[in-house]
Amino acid sequence: MAATAIWDIKDRLDRVINYATNPGKTENQGFASQNMQGLQKVLEYTAREDKTEKQYYVTGINCDPAIAYKQMSQTKLQFQKKDGILAFHGYQSFAPGEANPETAHAIGVMLAEELWGGRFEVVVSTHLDKHHLHNHFVLNSVSFADGKRYYDNKATYAQLRQVSDRLCREYSLSVIENSQEGRSEHYAEWKAGQEGKPTWRGLIREDVDKAIGGSMTFTQFIATLRKQGYEVKTGVKYIAVRPQGKERFVRLKTLGIGYSEDVIKERILQNRIPMKQEVLPEPKRKRIAASRSPDLKKIRKLKGLQGLYFHYLYKMGVLPKHTASRKRTHFLLREDIRYLGELTAQIRLLCKHRIENAEQLLGHQSILEQEMAGLSAERKSLYRLLRRCRDDVQIAEYKQQIAGLSKKLSRLRKETKLCRGIQFHSEEMKEKLSKIKLEENEKQREEKEHEQRSRSSRSNG
Questions:
Q1: Phi, psi values for residue 137, rounded to 5°
Q2: Contact criterion met (CB below 8 Å) for 198 and 334
Q3: Which helix (H) or strand (E) holds 448?
Q4: pLDDT, tens digit (0-9, with 9 covering 90-100), for 402-416
Q5: pLDDT tens readout for residues 40-84
Q6: Who's near 234: CB < 8 A, 6+ residues apart?
Q7: CA dist., res. 204 & res. 243, Å (int)
Q8: How far is CA 62 from the centre of its chain?
Q9: Which class for 117: exposed (0-12), middle (13-18), buried (19 or more C-beta within 10 A)?
Q10: Local structure of residue 65 (DSSP, 8 states)
Q11: Beta strands across the sheet bearing 240-242
Q12: 248-257 residue pLDDT tens
């Protein structure tokens, strides 16, 4: 496949440095002003030797890669267009193991030649530092031919996608098929799907598929979605749904080719027997002879952050339950499955150090940071000794000590990162669980009122 993207590079300063007011600068030094550093940094990044095997896979189109920054800057000065968007940074990524460096770079050069070669200066570089080969394009925002700016919009991006896909097919490489005509699948969503991680749009597709499989009519399909907790907008040009906890509606037709209203109706008509809803099996119960053992008394009740995390994983359906529950996991919790590894690491840290509240967490983090500062100072001292040392045996010993300190620092950094993650996720968990609790209470209240009205009508009858 070849995923593509393009974005603009803008000046981040509040004002533009006036080149002409500084008489101490030569003409070429003006190009190195802070206003143009964004362009220079991108050019340096895309041509870095550690990413391109000593710049072997770097090609300039209408410019020399070695002096591309100067040439692009001269074009801007020539047409008096130094402000605004400095350049465009394009990206083309290939599937891991699918293309070799020569093929990837050749495709990138042909793409740049076809799209921009007639009017713009472009640097094409192929990076080899990841499992997936990928091309970078640095496109000058001002044309050297007529001084007109390049405009990035839906039409030009669609053209980029079309040319990239065509070249990939010519080289027998896979492409990301559009989920619908005129709309491309977002790379992050595609990548999550390839890695088997759930996305919130994927969860909607899964629920829609289940609703279609279990419905004999379109009305029954709508009712099933509502039972699943979706708010459904009908009577509009495009049917749309809003999952629990989300603010915006999603048009079903944007989920893919098989999810427009007409196609959904056709899929429902093909159902002969509605699909039965999956019933969770009863868990196997183990009989345990309980005794008044002192060990049972030592089991402490989880509370604070530990209790919050265990309760959250329980609501997600990750932890085992005492009784089989047919209740669907809330949409807000289902999409957090993608972060299960991170949540598991955080809860292990909490249990290992018996951290129950925010104060204890901050205290533990402070200890970690102090330990990191000490190790960093010790490693810095070793680096100074290493630079002055001329004894090979002592140099090897210094390097071994530095490697050991670096390993400890890496572990401490990871643990510190987990602490910061717990601070963020714990507040997010509380908000989600509170929102879910309010929805459950509202639903129970409505069911109770409905039951009371039903009893009242039967008694009156």
A1: -125, 125
A2: yes
A3: helix 392-460
A4: 999 999 999 999 999
A5: 555 555 555 554 444 457 889 999 888 888 888 899 889 988 888
A6: 222
A7: 8
A8: 35
A9: middle
A10: G
A11: 231-233, 240-242, 250-251
A12: 888 888 887 7
List own/partner pairs for 282-289 with CB under 8 A and 24 or more apart: 282/324, 283/320, 283/321, 283/322, 283/323, 283/324
Phi, psi torsion values for 85, nearest 5 degrees: -70, 125
d(CA 162, CA 4) in angstroms, rounded, equals 10
Query: Residue 340 class from Cβ within 10 Å (0-12 exposed, 13-18 middle, 19+ buried)?
Result: middle
Q: Under DSSP, is residue 183 helix (H, G, I), strand (E, B) or coil?
A: strand
- Longest pairwise C-alpha distance within the chain: 103
Alpha-carbon distance 349 to 85, whole Å? 46
Instruction: Map tokens 């990044």 to a residue.
Output: 45
Output the CA torsion 169→87→50→378 (10° steps): -140
Instruction: Indicate the SS3 state at residue 280.
Output: coil
Picking from 19, 11, 5, the residue whose alpha carbon sits closest to that of residue 87 is 11
DSSP3 helix / strand / coil % (the chain, rounded to 5) = 55, 10, 35
365-403: per-residue pLDDT in tens?
Answer: 899 999 999 999 999 999 999 888 988 899 999 999 999
* Residue-by-residue DSSP string for 68-96: HHHHHHHHHHHTT--SSEEEEEEEEEE-T
Please choose, from the candidates 20, 161, 154, 32, the residue with its C-alpha nearest in 3D space to the C-alpha of residue 91. Answer: 161
Phi/psi-derived region of residue 32, left when phi > 0, alpha when psi is between -120 and 50, beta in every other case: alpha
| Contacts with 261 (C-beta within 8 Å, 6 or more apart), sequence order | 238, 239, 252, 253
Which amino acid is present at 415? E
Scan for tokens 């974005």, then name that residue: 7
Tell me the C-alpha distance between 111 and 114, whole Å: 5
Which of 107, 106, 111 is CA-nearest to residue 122? 111
Q: What distance in Å separates the CA atoms of residue 171 and residue 159, rounded to the nearest whole number? A: 19
The number of angstroms, rounded, from the C-alpha of 28 to the middle of its chain's C-alpha atoms is 41
Which residue type does 210 have? K
Place 179 in a pLDDT band, splitting at 50, 70 and 90: very low
Asked whether the beta carbons of 427 and 305 are under 8 A apart, the reply is no
Query: How many CA atoms does the CB half-sphere of 207 hold within 13 Å?
Result: 29
The helix/strand/coil state of 447 is helix
Rounded distance between C-alpha atoms, residue 228 and residue 126, angstroms: 47
Q: Are the CB atoms for 164 and 2 separated by under 8 Å?
A: yes
**How many CA atoms within 13 Å lie on the side-chain side of 340?**
15
Do 21 and 27 form a contact (C-beta atoms < 8 A)? no
